[in-house]
């Protein structure tokens, strides 16, 4: 980076860190974007004068609220709810809700910031937001989850709406939670609108929304592979996580001809040297989505697989790594294992799963690397399609939604190539994704004046 540009980044980051002390995930996400877009800002001084990056790093609105609820024994619990509305420059706020004990303001702000650029990349008119709570759904009964969701929505409802802010799912928030949240929203507002996405199929949801992030991740990775004359055929794929994104990434990778070797949760990972099959995937869907069991149970059903408690899947050699669990789950030692294992591609299904030091190791190892804001945008893209279907009171078929998803992932890939191709012909997907997303949002902000 040129001297002036790097001084701009350091000066800007100094202010971000001073204004948001202790929010390490937020600093990490902002720095990654600032480093990518600084040269463009320096070349376009009107963006610097309008302080576009500074404005984007200050959410338009943050709502923090108390969420009281009672468990099945009548004991009172208090959780904290969040909604970070980062940017409405290109459309109403849009982004998921996360229920996980690790949730805090830094994590909410990093996710809302990332979502702003991701949503811009999808080409659909959606601003960026994120929300959630430090509530842990693990081990809770359906009735407890329902009471929590109802209490959460009893405050959140006044800040959202079909043309204002449209939440969706994320870690710990799937179809069950969206159902309870929507039910309470509808009851309070007396309106059946498309205010949440990820709804059930027979009450306004889009077919293919559960599949969208994982499938979209594989469509994006396939585009990257094709650029090198490769495909998924015969490749060994390691996946972390065993939730929504991981399950459908595994199914699609397998259907594209890959051998999917691993799945994980926060307790450990399973390694199946024979690879997943359609039948094994059905078992995983039942285990995780109906019985709400743990991934270690997989080895009781398929004893040729091994369970590694307390470990992550990256020590198993693979060709393709698809982290689909959580932020900062690939640290430098994991990245070294991935490189040593001979991998050629890492595409992020989770948001910011690779630490900045680990990204450096991955790139130095010659791997193709896609940041989540590009490669996992399929979920929010199909949420955008769900919003359109709700507004038009219509529903599209699975084939229609799948082909729109493929086109959107291909367009995002093309944007990364357009803005991320380096003089030597290689593609810097981080540079491409950040720059393409930033330009769209920045231009809209300039058009709309200082708001
Ligand atoms: P789920 O709740 O369905 O699954 C999350 C999975 O990740 C679970 O297996 C969970 O294990 C594991 N996990 C969560 N936290 C940790 C941790 N600290 N360490 C190890 N494993 C962990 O969530 P999703 O599949 O929806 O989301 C996964 C990732 O994908 C997140 O980063 C999310 O932001 C991102 N994403 C999701 C989208 C979507 O459409 N759902 C869209 C775009 C991105 P355990 O059960 O033990 O907690």
Contiguous runs where pLDDT drops below 50 for at least 5 residues:
none
Estimate what percentage of residues fall within beta strands: 15-25%
User: What is the name of the CATH topology of the largest domain?
Assistant: Rossmann fold
* Class inferred from helices and paired strands: alpha/beta
Q: What's the helix count?
A: 17
Shape: globular
What is the CATH superfamily of the largest domain?
Answer: NAD(P)-binding Rossmann-like Domain
Please give the structural blueprint.
Layout: H1 3-19, H2 24-43, H3 45-49, H4 52-56, E1 61-70, E2 76-87, E3 93-99, H5 105-121, E4 128-133, H6 142-156, E5 165-168, H7 175-189, H8 209-226, E6 236-240, H9 244-255, E7 259-265, E8 268-271, H10 278-290, H11 298-301, E9 306-309, E10 320-323, H12 332-340, E11 345-347, H13 356-364, E12 368-370, H14 372-375, H15 378-392, H16 398-420, H17 429-448
Parallel strand pairs: 3-4, 3-5, 6-7, 6-10, 10-11, 11-12
Antiparallel strand pairs: 1-2, 2-4, 7-8, 8-9
Helix pairs in contact: 1-2, 2-5, 2-17, 5-17, 6-7, 8-9, 8-15, 8-16, 9-10, 12-13, 15-16, 16-17
The protein binds NADPH dihydro-nicotinamide-adenine-dinucleotide phosphate.
Task: Please supply descriptive tags for the structure shown above.
451 residues; seven-stranded mixed sheet; binds NADPH dihydro-nicotinamide-adenine-dinucleotide phosphate; Rossmann fold; globular
Would you give an account of this structure?
By secondary structure, the protein is α/β, with parallel strands linked by helices. The protein folds into three domains: 55 residues, no CATH class; 132 residues, 3-Layer(aba) Sandwich (Rossmann fold); 166 residues, Rossmann fold. 49% of the residues lie in helices and 15% in strands. Strands 9-8-7-6-10-11-12 form a seven-stranded mixed sheet, with helices on both faces. Strand 11, helix 13 and strand 12 form a beta-alpha-beta unit. It is globular and about 60 Å long. The chain is built from 17 helices and twelve strands. NADPH dihydro-nicotinamide-adenine-dinucleotide phosphate binds next to helix 9. The site of NADPH dihydro-nicotinamide-adenine-dinucleotide phosphate (NDP) has 24 residues, from helix 9.
